[in-house]
Amino acid sequence: MLGNHLSGTLPSDMGLFLPNLRGIYLEVNELGGTIPASICNASQLILVDLGGNSFSGLIPKSLGNLRLLQRLNLGLNNLTIESSELNIFSYFSSNAYLKNLYLSMNPLNGVLPNSIGNHSIFLEELDFTGCTIKGNIAIDIGNLSRLTYMSLGGNDLAGPIPTTIGRLSMLERLFLFDNRLKGPIPSDICYSGRLGNLNLAGNKLSGQIPKCVNNITSLRYLTLAFNQLTSRVPLSLWRLTDILVVDLSSNSLSGSISSSIGNMKVLTILNLSRNQLSGHIPETIGGLISLANLSLAVNQLEGSIPISFGGLVSLELLDLFGNNLSGEIPKSLVVLRYLKYLNVSYNKLRGEIPTQGPFVNFSAESFMSNDALCGLIRLNVPPCKEASLGPRKAIGVSILKYVLPTLGLTIIVVFVVLVSGKLHGKKNSKLSNNKDSMPWLTWRRISHQQLLQATEGFSENNLLGEGSFGSVYKGRFLDGTYVAIKVLNLELEGAFKSFDIECEILQHVRHRNLVKIISVCSNIDFKALVLEYMSKGNLEMWLYSNAHCLNMLQRLNIMIDVAAALEYLHLGYSTPIILCDLKPSNVLLDEDMVGHVADFGIAKLLSDGISLTQTMTMATIG
Ligand SMILES: Nc1ncnc2c1ncn2[C@@H]1O[C@H](COP(=O)(O)OP(=O)(O)OP(=O)(O)O)[C@@H](O)[C@H]1O
């Protein structure tokens, strides 16, 4: 009965009359109350799956009596263990055959025992993500020789990663992210010959990346971000020719990027941002045809942006912000048809900003604070001098400048804009049907299960507010990102339409004063928008609640933010967007009190002066 809407509690005598029961599958329902201790009377149980519910209270110790139990999933509930029983494994020491133990996202408040390896030697999968576990990872962990998956991420573990981890020769996925682990990454990890996914991000790990890392030829995902790693990136790392994702961001790594990077032919994400990398960006990066995200931001890279970047045919995000890059932005980038995000701000670039291909959609934010970039006025750079335009263009510009009077020129420009606007409007019954400009290709994939996890099962504690078509919850993903999740109440008339409109508009618009969409989760009976989280709440609260106060400058800035957003919606896009519901509760404020306009559920897209999208709505028209 997995994945239904079953609610209520489990009968307290549940296990008494089911002597032959071998499996309980009740994962992802709305069940609550305590887990009845009588469950242990169903002594033939091999599998107990109660994850993703709202069970609370103590995990019954009697579960340890289920001697045949192989899989126990209690993840994503609100369960604890007895405060006298800090050792979480003591609960399961008699479950001799236990292979899969999932307790993630329960406030267990326990510790990992020193004798961890004496327990459960059959364990294959262990998930204690986000269980508020303290203590050190004991060296005995190396005895769990059958482990293929271990996640202790999002806990409060301290101390070093024991070298015995290298004895886990079957290990395929190791997640120790978001703890307080310190010391070096033990080179013994290179003996884990099956390791495919290693995530140690968000700790205090220091020293260097083990040189033997290239021995782990099975490695596909390597995430070491947000640590204190120093010294050069070992050359051996670039020899991992089958790796898909490398995230070493926010460390103190130095040295240059080896040209051997060109061997990583299947790499899709490379994030080396916020380190101290220097030297030139190797031309060989241009051969990485699967690369979708490349971030080298906030380093000390110099030289020019390689022309070979034009070969990064899958690139969606290119972040070179905050380096010492000089020379011109290569024209070769105009062929990158999937490029949706570009940031070359805070470098020493000069010359003309290309105007073709993806550059049509980039705004001034992509090019701020460089030495001498020039181009279109909307990019906040001076127009290019004729010399930099090449001889033919220069002649053309001269003719326009001297032959046509300014007024005539203006008329022509306005005419061209109007005609192209009309053509665009006719071609697109909605904002755009062009598959090549689908930003949702870059949206993070988020499942219903992840949303449940992020919001602790859409708990009331995380409710941010309620609107006309549903509720908005605060969520925190396992990587620490906060989001706002707008869950539509599909029973309300107009909710489907509101969802479609909001999706349609948010997926196309991009402006610093509009709330950004991160993803959508859409099934037949569940629809949610995952939005950037605005930590300072809505403007209505700031204006009318006694507990909040805005000074004049803040008020002025927020007014400018809202005006900039409206200007963009009305004029900045080929199809004007009329918000229809502008009110203080729809102006959200981020951590820096920057205003972001939200709620497009009843917005209208205008084309040829005709409203294409209209909704019956209960929300305020404003
Ligand atoms: N991205 C976000 N970050 C933080 N809080 C948010 C976010 N989105 C919405 N909220 C909060 O949730 C509340 C409800 O938002 P929602 O857009 O559903 O409805 P509303 O705009 O308040 O009402 P209506 O739908 O009637 O216009 C907002 O007022 C705001 O306080």
UniProtKB/TrEMBL annotation:
Entries under SMART domains matching the protein: LRR_TYP, S_TKc
Assigned keywords, A-Z: ATP-binding, Leucine-rich repeat, Membrane, Nucleotide-binding, Repeat, Transmembrane, Transmembrane helix
Compartments in which it is found: Membrane
Positions of the Protein kinase domain: 458-622
Binding positions for ATP per the UniProt entry: K486
Keyword Transmembrane belongs to the record: yes
Transmembrane segments: 402-421
Keyword Transmembrane helix: yes
Pfam family, one: LRR_1
Membrane protein topology class: Single-pass membrane protein
GO cellular component, one term: membrane
Signal peptide boundaries: none
GO molecular function: ATP binding; protein kinase activity
PANTHER family: OS04G0122200 PROTEIN (PTHR27008), PROTEIN KINASE DOMAIN-CONTAINING PROTEIN (PTHR27008:SF585)
Protein name (Swiss-Prot/TrEMBL): Protein kinase domain-containing protein
Organism: Carya illinoinensis (Pecan)
Phylogenetic lineage: Eukaryota, Viridiplantae, Streptophyta, Embryophyta, Tracheophyta
